[in-house]
Amino acid sequence: MIDVIIAGGGPTGSMLAGELRLHGVRVLVLEKDAEPAAYVRSLGLHVRSIEVMDQRGLLERFLAHGRQFPVGGGYFAAIEKPVPELDTAHGYILAIPQPVTDRLLAEHAVESGAEIRRGCEVVGVSQDEDGVDVELADGTRLRSRYVVGCDGGRSTVRKLIGVGFPGEPAQAETLLGEMEVTEAPETIAAVVTRIRQTEKRFGLGPVGEGRYRVVVPAEGVAEDRSVPPTLEEFKRQLRACSGTDFGVHSPRWLSRFGDATRLADSYRVGRVLLAGDAAHVHPPLGGQGLNLGIQDAFNLGWKLAAEITGQAPEGLLDSYQGERRPVAAAVLDNTRVQNLLISTDPTAQAVRRLMAELMDFEGVTRHLIEKVTALDIRYDFGEGHELLGRRLRDVKLTQGRLYELTRSGRGLLLDRTGGGRLSVEGWADRVDHVVDLSAELDVPAVLLRPDGHVAWVGEDQEELLDRLPRWFGAATATATA
Ligand SMILES: Cc1cc2nc3c(=O)[nH]c(=O)nc-3n(C[C@H](O)[C@H](O)[C@H](O)COP(=O)(O)OP(=O)(O)OC[C@H]3O[C@@H](n4cnc5c(N)ncnc54)[C@H](O)[C@@H]3O)c2cc1C
C-alpha cells in the first residue's frame, strides 16, 4: 500500500513529498493540473525558508536561480525602514518566481523517489481505521495509509473531510498580470512612485524580456475568481488609478486575487491532514503564504514519517497542528494589520503614519521583520532555556557547518561537553551525536529535532534521556536490553 497520498503538487505538496522520502516513506503526489502553472504568485523566499533549504542541501540550486536582496523594512506594509541585523547566516531575501520554486521542489521530490502524477484531480476521500480511499475525477480509486491535502485555498480535501474554514471573505480584489507596455520606463517609474504614495495595491515593475508585472485594484470582487480578467479590465483600472494605461498589450498571463483571510478549524481528521493554503489563506502582504506552506511541510514530514514507521511517540502527529496552527494564526493577524495599514482610508493612513514613527525604534522593526521572516517562531515545549522551541541558526563547527549535518532529516545532538558524558544510545538510528567544541554556541549541548528546533539544552544525561522519547519515541530494544 502507498503510505501517503498528497493531494496537490504545489510548493507545499512537493516539499512534503521530499521530506517524507528522507525517511523512506512511499509517497504519491496527485496534481490536478496537467501542466505546471506559468503564472507568478510568490516572488521569493524569506530567511527561515532559505535556512530550511540549506538544512536540506537544496540551497545551492535555489541560489542559482534567484537574486539576493537585503531584508528591507518595506516587507511590513511597504513601510520603508532600515532593518537591524538578524540572527541568521542568511540575512537576505531570495527573489525567485514561484514557478521556479515549484519546479525545484518538484524535481527534488522526484529525485528523492516520490511519484508525481499530473492530470489527477482528487474528488473523493473516505477513511476507515486502517487507511484512506481516494477517488480521482476519472473514477480511479487508490488507497493509502494517510492523505495530506496540499490542494490550495479552495481545498477539495478540506471540504471532503468537513473541516470548517472560518474567517473573513474577500473585501477587495487586485488584478495581477504580466504584459508589455509602450510607455517609456522613466515615465512609468515616475507615475508608479506618485500613485504608490497612497495606493500600495498599485505597481508596474519590469520582469525582463520587455515585460512588466502589473498590479492594480479591481473594480469589485469577482463572483468566480478562477475566471481571469481581460486586458481591457486592466486598462480600465490602470486609467482609473493613474490616468494612463501605459499602453499595456500582449499579456503573458492575467489573474486576480482577493484578500480573504481564513484558517482551518482543524489540521487533522483521523488519517487525513491539511497543509499550506489548504489550511490557511490571507492576503499576500509581506510575501508569506508559500513560505508558511513550506514550513508546514517541514514540520509535518518527519512526524508523519515517524507515525508510519511506528517510531512516533504518543501525540507527536498532533503536535503538528499544536505548533503550526498558532503560527498561521499569527501570520493571518499580521496580514490583517498590513491590509489595514495600506488602506487609503484617512484613519488607516493616520495609523500608518504612527506605525512608521514606531518603526524608527529598532526593537519594533526587529519584532515585525522577525514575524514576516518567521524567525520569531518559538514552539511551546514548556519552561526552559531561551533557545528551547526555537530553530537554531546555522553555526560554524570545527569541521564544516551545523546545517550541513542536518540533511538526513534525523535528530541531532550537538555536544560541546567534550564527549563521553552524553549519549544517544538507543536512539542512534534516529538521532546523530556530533561532538564539536564550536565556539559559536555558548551552551553545553543542544538536541535538535529534524526540523532544527531545539528540543533540549543542557549537559545532564538523565535530562537528555527524559527528552529523547518525547520527540523520538522509545529506545530500541538492543539498547535497553
Ligand atoms: C498575487 C499573489 C502573490 C503572492 N506572493 C507571495 C510571496 O511573495 N511569498 C509567499 O510566500 N507567498 C506568496 N503568495 C502565496 C503563495 O502563492 C501560496 O501561499 C502558495 O502557492 C501556497 O502553496 P500550496 O502548495 O499550499 O498551494 P498551491 O500553490 O495553491 O498549490 C495547490 C496545488 O493543488 C492542486 N489541486 C487543487 N485541487 C486539487 C485536487 N482536487 N486534486 C489534486 N490537485 C489539486 C492545484 O492545481 C495546485 O497545483 C502569493 C499569492 C498570490 C495570490
Structure, described:
This protein has helices at residues 11-21, 47-55, 59-65, 98-111, 156-160, 185-196, 231-242, 289-309, 318-341, 346-358, 362-372, 461-472, 477-480, and strands at 2-7, 27-31, 44-45, 67-70, 92-95, 115-118, 122-127, 132-136, 141-149, 167-168, 173-180, 203-208, 211-217, 249-258, 261-263, 268-269, 272-274, 280-281, 411-415, 431-435, 445-448, 454-457. 32% of the residues lie in helices and 22% in strands. The protein starts with a strand and ends with a helix. It is built from 13 helices and 22 strands. Helix 1 (11-21) runs parallel beside helix 4 (98-111) and helix 8 packs antiparallel against helix 9 (318-341). The radius of gyration is 23 Å and the shape is globular. The mean pLDDT is 95. The protein is of the alpha+beta class. Residues 7-13, 30-33, 41-44, 98, 121-122, 150-152, 156, 176, 257, 276-277, 284, 287-291, 293 line the site of flavin-adenine dinucleotide.
